[in-house]
Amino acid sequence: MSSTTVLILRDPESREVNLRCDALGSYLRRMSGVEGKDVTLIEGAARSSETVTQVAEAAGLVGAEGQVRYVPTRAARDRVVADGDGAWAPALVSRHRKQARRSVGAVFQFPLEAEAQDTDTTPASLTTFVTDWTGLPSSCAIAVHPGHPLSTGLGPDEEAAFTGRFCRHPLTGDLLPIWVADWVKPEFGTGAVLINPGHNAADLEFSRKVGLPVRFSLAPEDYDGAPADWPKPPFIKSGFAFRTGATDGLPFSEAKTKYFAAVAERGLVEEYTDSGMGTFRIATIDAEGEVDLAWDPRRRTVASRGEGGDPIAVTLSPVLRGAEQHVRSSDLTVVTPSTRVEDDLLALRLLLAEPELEPAVKSAPEVVVVSNAQLAKGVDAGVPDDVLGLALLVSAGPLDTLSVKPQHIEPCERFLKAHEGLAARECVAGQDLSAETAKAAGQIKGLLGRKDLKQAFTQLYRLQKNLAKSETVGASDVSCYGVLAHVLAGVEAPHAPEELAAVWKTI
Description:
alpha/beta
C-alpha cells in the first residue's frame, strides 16, 4: 500500500482561511483513504526535538528575536532556483525564483591552518563568497557568523571576537585571522565574509573597531609612494594594482581578472551566482512551548549533540515536518494559504531540497493553494466550525477568493441536519442499489475525482433529498450515499475504515 501524507499549512491571521485549508486537507485525506492509500494528515506543528537537531546539522539554524530560523544551504537554494528539486508547478517555480536575490561573484577557498583539535569532519578550507575582488591581495581577515562551524561564538554584549584560527590567503599565502562578527549574514553566500578595509567602507569600519591592519593593493594612476599622496581608505574599484608584484600597474579590472586566473589555476576559486532567499522561522522560543531544545547562547543556535547547552522551550512550525523521514518518504500533498507561498511553502520546498536530509525526496509534492476567505455582512461569526468548514469547501474552488454569504451557509446547515435524519432512518435490507442512486453516485464520484467539489455537493444534496423523501429506502442506497457524504463532507462513515475502499470501488 502506498503511503500518502497531507500537510496543512496555516495563515495565523485568518480563522476562515485556516478552516478552508483544514476542510480541504481533510477532504484530500478521506479521498486518498477510500482510494486504498495509507494516509497521514498533519494538521499541527512538529513535536520532535530530533527533527530540529537534524536540520541544524544538515543545514543551519540561527536565533533572532525569540525565534529559531532555518538557514537553507547553498545546495538547496541552487536546486530550488534551478528547479532541480522536482516537477513543481511552473507558477510556483516562477514565484520562488523571482523572490531570490541574485549576487554575481565567486566562491574562494581559503585553506585552513591545521590544529591539534581538528577532526576528520573539520573542513580543509574556509569557503567565502566574494562579489568584488579588485583589491584581493590586500585582504587581511575573514569574518564568519556566530553559528558558523568555525565560530567560537559571541558573549551577550560582544559584537566580534577572534576565533584563534587562521587560514591561508589563496593568492599570497599570507595567514588571515578568522573572526566572528554579529553582522555577518548566515544566509548570504557561505556565511563568511572577506575583510578588505583598504577597499571597502564597511570593512574599514569593522577593522577600526577590532584593530585589523589597513593595507592597499590599489592606488591612483602614477602614484609614486610619496607620503603626501598616500591613498585614503577606502579606495574602491578604481586606480591601478599597487604592491601586488606581477600585476603592478594594471588597471583594477585587468588586475581582477589576473587574480582570478591565478587562484583558479590552484583550484581554489569558481564563479558563482548566489541566490539569497533569507532565513525562515521554524520555531518560536516560548516558555509554554511543547519541545525542549539544548541551545548554545554563544553560537546562537541549537547545541550540537553531546555538547549540552542551555535548555529552552519552543513551539515548532508545521514546516519542519518536511524534514521528517515519514514525510520525505511518502507521496506528499501540501495545502497552503496563498499568503504563505513565499514564506512557509518556500521554506518547506527548501527543506525538501536539502541534500543532507534523508531520505532524498524523489518528486515534488502536489500543492493546493488556497485563496483568501472571509465572512460577508449578515453572517454570524459564531457559525459552527463544521458548517462553516463545509461552506468554505464546497462554495468555490480553492483558488477563488470567497466571501461567505448566508446563501452559502444555509444549504450546508440543512445538509448536515438532514444527514443525521437519513443516517438514523430505518432502511430496507437486502435490496440492490437502485438505478437512480447508482447513476447519481457515479456522477458524484467522478466530480470528486476531478475535485469539482461545488458541483459534487450540489448533486450529493439532490441525492440526499431524493432518498429522504422516499417512502422506503434501501440500505444499499443509504450506504452508497453515506460513503460519498463521508468523503465530501467529513460526516461519520457508514462502514469501518478498512471496508471503505472496497465500497468505493463498487460505486
